[in-house]
Prior knowledge:
The complex is a heterotrimer of chains A (189), B (743) and C (327). Chain A is α+β, with helices and mostly antiparallel strands. In chain A, 33% of the residues lie in helices and 13% in strands. Chain A contains seven helices and five strands. By secondary structure, chain C is of the alpha+beta class.
Amino acid sequence: MSASDTHAMRRSQVETAPPSAIKLNINDQVRQLAVDPRTSLLDALREHLRLSGTKKGCDHGQCGACTVLINGRRVLSCLTLAVMHEDDEIMTIEGLGDPDHLHPMQRAFVECDGFQCGYCTPGQICSAVGMLAEVRAGWPSHVTTDVSSSRVALTDDEIRERMSGNICRCAAYPNIVAAIRGSAEGGAT
Amino acid sequence: MIGQAVNRVDGPLKATGRAAYAYEHWEAGQPLYGFIVGATIGKGRITRIDTEDAEGAPGVQLVMTYLNAPAQGPRDESIPFEYWRAQPMLTGPDIHFYGEPVALVVAETFEQARDAADLVEVEYRAGRGRFDFGEFEDDTYIPKTVNAGLPTDTAVGDFDAGFAGAEVKVDQQYTTPYEFSMPIEPNASMVAPHGDDDLVVYVSCQITDAARDSVAGTLMMDPERVHIVTPFVGGGFGSKLGIHSETILAAMAARALGRPVKVTLTRQQVFQLVGMRPTSSQRVRLGAGHDGRLAAIAHDVTMHTNPDVEYAEQTAATVRSLYAAPHRLTSHRLTALDLPRGTDVRAPGEAPGMLSVESAMDELADALGMDPVELRIRNEPTVDPERNVPYSDRHLVECLREGARRFGWENRPATPASVREGRWLIGYGMSAAIRGHFQGPTTVRVRLEPDGTAVIQTDMTDIGTGTYTILTQVGAEGLGLPLERVRIDLGRSDHPSSWGSGGSWGATNSSTAVHRACAALRTKLLDAALGDTRSPLHGQDPSAAVFSDGDVAIGGASEALREIVARHHPDGVEAEGQTRFMGDDPNYSDYSINTYGAHFAEVGVDADTAETRLRRMLSVFSVGRVFNPKTARSQLIGGMIWGVGAALEEEAVVDPRSGAFVNRDFAGYLVPVHGDIPADIDAVVLEGYDDKANPLGAKGIGEVGICGSGAAVANAVFNATGVRVRDFPITIEKLLPGLPAMV
Amino acid sequence: MRSFTYERATDTRAAVAAAAQPGAKFISGGTNLLDLMKLDIEYPSHLVDISRLPLRDIEELPDGGLRIGAQARNSDVAADPRVRTRYPVLSEALVSGASGQLRNKASTGGNLVQRTRCPYFYDTAAGCNKRDPGSGCAAIGGFNRIHAILGASESCIATHPSDMAVAMTALDAEIELLRADGSVRRVAITDFYRLPGDTPHIENVLGDDEMITGVLLPPPLPGRQIYRKVRDRASYEFALVSVAAVVSADRGTIREARVAFGGVAHKPWRSVEAEDALTDHPARMDTYRAAAEAALRGAVGRGDNDFKIELAKRTLCRTLAQAAGAS
């Protein structure tokens, strides 16, 4: 609490705003919940809906562990509010597949040993799925030689740059790149 | 089964988000949420603490400070290892380091707890702290021992004379920064009251047994009433060997409220509350003849320690077994600073020590005009030069030669700063690797169920190291079962205890214990069958028994294990296997048991901006027998990448005015990202079997990957630029003044 | 994070009025605001969600320029074919920033007004005149490796962290602001940002009753555009120094140039001095060096960041060489 901030002002912001009743479309299911407006999408998933596959690594957009797909795009669920996502289609790691029905990207990660502790893994996988869609759409990246060209080749360098928002402290990076490359070549979406 | 590249058996759970980590257990019902308030001074005393606003905030159930925290057991230094000791929190108004917990706020929701934590008003009287390593570097003391009980100082021969008489000398000072383990799962715990006075503690930890004793000792409980549950751990790298404030505070709050409470550290708090690799200043002296043979080696290290919890990384210990030289000296000194405690961070001592020693070896090679690989080969010892015992199974030279061949070392630019490709200055570097192999007490129970499946139970953890997978392989091989009929049940303190995951001993400790338990179980099964007239194996020769595919066969007769169990042990049958403390195993005193490796790296340094990027890397290791080449390769590469980070990126900075870590998040404390690591990186493991280590011939691999790998990168930077940086990490400002003029 | 009320705006002018109330703030991508709210650095009492307002389009302008809606996501701007072909420096800057996930959320308007990454701004226990006017500047005398070398004051040495805004500065962008009364004004991006002076908490000229609705890019100069970002790791890091350069050269002579630096000042740093030193001069290294010296003439290091002066010069020289050499 800053010095210029009066006690009364601070107190006035303590009273919890009434919970917002919201509907979220998660993994093709409509889920109703009542959340404090302060609830991040990440905490709504983990603590309210008990979908703890989406991980909290830093809570500040600096690690990528909380990556989910919203309307097909990869985003960080820690830096957005649950109340902002009514009408959106949210896909989490649980929606991509389950242990008996692995999504091709999940299978590729298992096959290529694309993780060790597994904590960054759901974020890596969701990010990889979203990233491949971005490549298919021809989006440029920092390592794209000519951004004016609408064609992007899925080289290892492109994968590495585009996945750099997902930190893996076990440093499974080369295996993750192999998994994504293999999955893309296998036509995974 | 052992030695096969089996996929991780827990892979599908992890890849689908179904593996439950500490903060993600719901079986005890809806928990309350705790949020820690940290001190905003680095040294001094709380003069006033006002919790009224916080207590009145919506949803708040408890605000715990030193004024209302329960009495706790003391940190008992007679307990041999820190991780098993009590960790009392909120014990008084004194502040020992910045960020130290001063309150825990518990509320119905996370949002309420975080908000109310900000309403706890604390006033301090700040004292004068010792925060700056540089200022107090010379004000040292001599620790009794260094980490793992290793000797503080060693001396062989007459170093001063040997060094004085050497024809070629290196005498350099290196510094390494504070570094953090920083697994992506922050330290987290949920504690649920259970039964009369029991606690179920879901915690992200590496050593279940230590967590139990530490919680019990702090809360003054019978350890049997503390039930640690930690089936999945989101990385540890040393930072979860012990439990921390998150667990103790959650446990005290859960007991006070009679409800489950969970607490996670924020990422910023992880930088203040779990300890770090000490910063170090290292003098390395090497004296050699013109032929490259070392006459004298000295490694003298000064590090920081917390004044209350001494920690001395074994930074100078690695060189003791690395190269031959008649005159030798190593020493460790500590200066006490009012900072968080030093603690084990992956390859404690070995990583920063090898960074310096192997940089110095590169400097010596440069001074001699000798190939750095050849210099190392010339100094290969025949026996451990300080302990004067034979090596159990040393293959460093093979690693060096095989690595040089595979990497194309012969293409190394002979002259530094001589190769340029476009904007990039190109350089090659290499380093040797060595790390001690350790063994600790571990007990494992293997149980065969009447349906013919095996269950392996131990409190051992899998922190990403592959324990589930390799124990499945060892158990399947030991009982002759297909992999899918072996189930691994880890991370519960109610299971037989182990030394957990750490020190690169977890895999070999637990696998050896499983191997022995399976042998005992096979004997039980055979005894039952052979003595039973109903068995087709009745009266057969047990020494000819073959266990495979769920059956036991002797000659032409065979019987399913399921049948034997059902007939003789309708509730299942079990046996235990153990490993013992290495101090009680003569092999560990009669031999120098280590793992070895050789790292080769190619870097590019931007000729204009000094940005340094790894272009490729190859390391060759000798680690005895490998349980699973797939998971082993992953873990070794992971270690190598840690070395890359240490060489080029990782550095936590203390503000000497406050004692706080300034860059305490992942935006400021840089660890390697995908973009930093080329696809052309590989780890190769030589075939091996170390019969002195254990009956499986295997040794630990969790840390040898990081030993020396940073030096290979640093030496490549020198080769690329001609600039030698001895203050790690090697960042832009340190290279920039030495770059060529722009044309 | 303090409690707040939330509304999703459906009408642009109504949103401006709602956010003009005391304690109210806009939220769009949320990637910077929520980060700061979690740390009690920002504490709005009411959030007006403008992310779904119809301000996402990227449109052609009659003069051959482009208008980028304030709610266009960074990813969409970077991938827009018109931006990629006509303003590649902007695409390059955008994709060098943050990560794919963040760019998918971050809005154009939000990127412009993102706050500094000074670690002392982020530490509520440290003195920071930007966060808490009058409390001092802990970065002066502290760890200031990433801090400003140009245009700083004794009140504040923070830098603006945007890459996008640096490219827009080199492209002579204008920022379109809508008032609650419906009036619109346009401000040149160089006039939009302020230097810290003794009011570092006031970072730009955006009024409480205004909303950024778009960014206007005039037709680009002919010539080569390059964005060069220098950082410790290969990706996912803010710039130590960056350069956006647009260079129009003809038969070995530079006809016109635009130069802007990132990571060196409280705002994207347009260097008219460098541009003047380039115009009508031969496209060769001594010209670039003269431009670099001119650009950094008033630079002041604070200790840890001293190296950024030389780094900025070298980065500019190489970027100019590439931009002029290829045109």
